[in-house]
Amino acid sequence: MKPLSLPIAPRVLVVALRRLGDVLLTTPLIRSLKRAYPQASIDALVFAGTEGILTGNPDLSGIFTIPQRPRLRETLALALRLGRRYDLALSTQTGDRPTALAIIAARQSAGPLEPSGLAAAVKRLGLSRSYVRDSSQHRVLDILGLAELLGITAHAEIVCPTGAVRSALVPTRPYAVVHAAPMFIYKRWTADGWRNLAAALRERGLATVITGAATDRVYLDDLWRGSDVVRLDGKLEWPELAGAIAAAQAYIGPDTAITHLAAATGTPTVALYGPTDPRLWGPWPVGGLDRPWAAAGTMQRRGNVWLVQNPLPCLPCQLEGCDRRLDSHSQCLDELSVAQVMTAVDQALAMQRAA
User: Fold this and answer.
1) pLDDT tens readout for residues 196-218
2) pLDDT of 193
3) Which of 91, 241, 247, 331 could pair covalently with 236 via S-S, beta carbons 3.0-4.6 A apart?
4) How does pLDDT run across 245-265, given as a tens digit for each residue?
5) CATH 3.40.50.2000, the chain: domain bounds
6) How many helices (H) and strands (E) does the chain have?
7) CA separation, residue 195 to residues 1, 59, 283, 301, 338 (Å)
8) Domain 11-150 sits in which CATH superfamily?
């Protein structure tokens, strides 16, 4: 497609109003824009609470936030603030609010559309350029459809927060990072599974560093009570978290934004997946996917990522657990064995030793 006509130093806005992991997965698009327009000033508009994952991103000039459930007054104030301030605005979603904000913010706008419907028809009229999103693609490739739409080269590289962890916080001996607390219960592995994993890491001469949010404290206190682990949950800002993972021998975690971050650091990453479809949301390894993730399998490897599943016939269901709610259990994760996870961990550690 023919590139847009833009000033030599355009002002660009990228709208990404979703969760942490989704915001991280927009960084390849932001990098593509910066490579195509080196003199551009690029800003991101994200939900409050997700901006930290963009800390230190060298491709961004600024980050603006909006509450996840803004009042009408806040939305109107933001619209007035953005009004025609940019030369180009991109919505990374098909939703009404991000699309409307992109249209309001810039002289030229672009974004994805749903395949049909009145709302899609109206948005097509408002946007300068649009395309029908391919919901069967991995989210990174889906978002990079905007690069193709703009006629620029896509760079499928996730950009991590930059920084180093304070040396006093991490063990002096080799360690693995374990993140046991996803945002939603239906993505959790079992408590016994995590404890046995930590014991197996200890047998291999590794310390176990625990990460998590301050809000995970009650769950993690119960999970790790009496265990020989190093607790860093609630102690690290995003750059330090990325630094701690980058310095680890391996990372093990469930389907969560931290696992996507781990994969992007280049650290050997073992991802435990349950209901989520990895074809759409599997971790993106350094260098990208040489081939797509399969829907289900006992263990798959792509680059520096091992994806472990318990492939029941219903996997991946893309539902919120077996009870269809956020606090549900998931049989596929409840029955995932420590031996299966450790097979992947041992392969990841062997890769690290070889490197």
Assistant:
1) 999 999 999 999 999 999 999 99
2) 98
3) 241
4) 999 999 999 999 999 999 999
5) 11-150, 175-354
6) 13, 13
7) 53, 40, 24, 24, 10
8) Glycogen Phosphorylase B; (3.40.50.2000)
